[in-house]
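#data-curation
PF: Archiving a pair of folding outputs for the training set. Convention for this channel: one message per protein, sequence first, structure tokens after, nothing in between. First:
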Amino acid sequence: MTSRLLLKVTCAAEAPERANQAFTVAAAACAAGAEVSLWLTGDAAWWAVPGKGPDLGLEHARPVEDLLAIVLDMGRVTLCSQCAERRRITAEDLRPGVRIAGAASFVEEALDDPQARDALGRALVADLLSEWRDQGRTVLLNSHLLGEVERVC
């Protein structure tokens, strides 16, 4: 069984050691054969765009650009959708191999449990149905989960 590692980087130049450590751990885990998913959030979002991530200039630390290249080659890198939107970063701006995804995708990766994913999906659908109900929309729904149907209808 392959080991999995999910990391979220939330900082950049304002906390260079924390930022570099996350990239170092992600790259080391890739080199060790782990399945790595690295999420870029907050100011770390800029590393998703070529030439925009800050040079941390830390002594005795491998540059983030080198570490990120390893993770892009051997793992997965995701940019937080809200963070991208706040910084006006679009899919066209991204480095090759970086994707944009939101909280539901992060939770799915974090839980890595088919039953948990089913529960998350049901919760998202229930929220959407409740929103439509509140808007006065008509929805035709067929389900054997009567308790959940009663909750949203």
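PF: Second:
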Amino acid sequence: MSSADILDQLCEVNREIFLGDFADCEPQEFTIELDPVPASRPCVFGNGGVTFGKRYKAFKEAALTKCKYFTGRKTGKPVACFIEHIVHRPNNPSNPYPVGDLDNYDKGPLDAMVQSGLFFEDDIQVVFLVSAKRYQRPNEQACVNILWFDFDM
């Protein structure tokens, strides 16, 4: 079994464990049909302004546009979230897994969800997060799958 196959299985197991742990909650799901991009290092200006790399900025803007199509319910409660980043596989990948820190892949989709005003008030509500990144399988589209539950604490 290749390392890529093992990684695929781990992603699937993470999703099933997450679903099992929160079986009594009502899940919501949304897919951002874009090739995931990790957040770049911010460039901070002397006047306090901040900017990010062009590729990440473009992803974040496109993700916000996609998020505006969400028709589920908004929550003000704490959120448990599973995020799966399915990244476009290059012709000759240098690694069996996508390059970029996993937590940086999570930032763009969460920020887009908050900025859309349709999912939750602030990403501070995310109190439990499981995420995974992997290359797309043959005939699979690159995207970000997000599954979450809100609950009372």
